[in-house]
Amino acid sequence: MPRDIKLGRVLIEGKTKIVYELTETPGQVLLQSKDRITAGDGAKAHNLEGKAAISTATTSAIFELLNNAGIKTHFVKRHSDTSFIARRCEMIPIEWVTRRIATGSFLKRNPGVREGYRFCPPKLETFFKATYSLFRRYEISEQDDANHDPQWSREQLIEAKLNVGGVTIGTDEYEILAKSTVTIFEILEKSWASVDCTLVDMKIEFGVQTDTGELVLADVIDSDSWRLWPAGDRRLMKDKQVYRELKDVTPEALETVKRNFAWVAERVALLSPKPHARVVVIMGSPTDTGHCEKICAACRQYGVPCEMRVCSAHKATDEALNILAEYEGKGGNSNRVVAVAGRSNGWVQFCLGLAVVLFLSAEAAALNAAQILGLSDHVIWSKLRASQLNTWIGLKMADKKVRKD
């Protein structure tokens, strides 16, 4: 491990990772992965050389993708092949599971539902992490302990009044975490679809950031966290389910599991490319530059590259057509044109049969362009989706504050 940081005490050690305090950077921790694979709450466990590096590569790429989209997470940066630095959190002892396709334990708990049933919208479930909660001194029953991580309903979770990091998980917090969970799933679902992989289901955890009290996505997200079917085919699955279903855990079988995890880590690197789309802002006069710069700034907030051009369609029609042809040649379906016209004399006329949307503000024009481009570009779509979530959370917290006041 690089020696550029000073490790403090071990805050917690689990089956697959160790969390260290960072003495020189208060409020941050280091998560060190282990070469260990487990299933059934540890009932099945084996060493798997190289898993720590694969897991860290996957987790880091996923959190970077989510951070870039605008989702609030604990992830700061990757530190080494097998570790990353994160903001220190008090973990909420709830596992949040989102399902798009019915499979696995859901079928056992819901007899009569066929495998492959598609949930629209995604199905959200919550499970109480009874074993982990022993570290946080929550009261758990013997039945909970025997059932490992029992499923909890919305009502059970709210009535438990879990206090984590000074935050009580009530109705508002539940709704924020529930909406965040589904949004995160949909962002990653759309991202995996860009490389022809179906995200079947996923489990995540949240924490309360110790220095701000914010609810943030935390822990790790790797091949232990989801079911992933290339081309939507269960027979091609590349996730931990392959390990779960092993009857004889041989060295050869473990090597297959490792290859699957490595395959996922390689594909994850392809999920967060720069947007392939762009907005072209064409102004009829250079006097409109200030207004066009506002459009470009708004576009970039959604991750949309933006270029400005100057050309008058009625004064230099041939040149305007040449500019359009230029961008058609650079990928016509990936470009959107925002034409700034009529600002000098307040007069705009559209030709019959031409589909045009008129906007009076720069921000509205940029948002519309981003929404259209997001239909075919998952990077832009993710930023829009995260922006909607953060706006909703802001209103939710403002409403809570008003009720208290």
UniProtKB/TrEMBL annotation:
Pathway: Purine metabolism; IMP biosynthesis via de novo pathway; 5-amino-1-(5-phospho-D-ribosyl)imidazole-4-carboxylate from 5-amino-1-(5-phospho-D-ribosyl)imidazole (carboxylase route): step 1/1; Purine metabolism; IMP biosynthesis via de novo pathway; 5-amino-1-(5-phospho-D-ribosyl)imidazole-4-carboxamide from 5-amino-1-(5-phospho-D-ribosyl)imidazole-4-carboxylate: step 1/2. Pfam families: AIRC, SAICAR_synt. GO terms for biological process: 'de novo' IMP biosynthetic process. One of its GO terms (cellular component) is cytosol. It comes from the Eukaryota. Keywords: ATP-binding, Decarboxylase, Ligase, Lyase, Multifunctional enzyme, Nucleotide-binding, Purine biosynthesis. One of its GO terms (molecular function) is ATP binding. The keyword Lyase applies. Residues 277-395 form the PurE domain. In the C-terminal section; belongs to the AIR carboxylase family. Class II subfamily. In the N-terminal section; belongs to the SAICAR synthetase family. This is PurE domain-containing protein. It comes from Pomacea canaliculata (Golden apple snail).
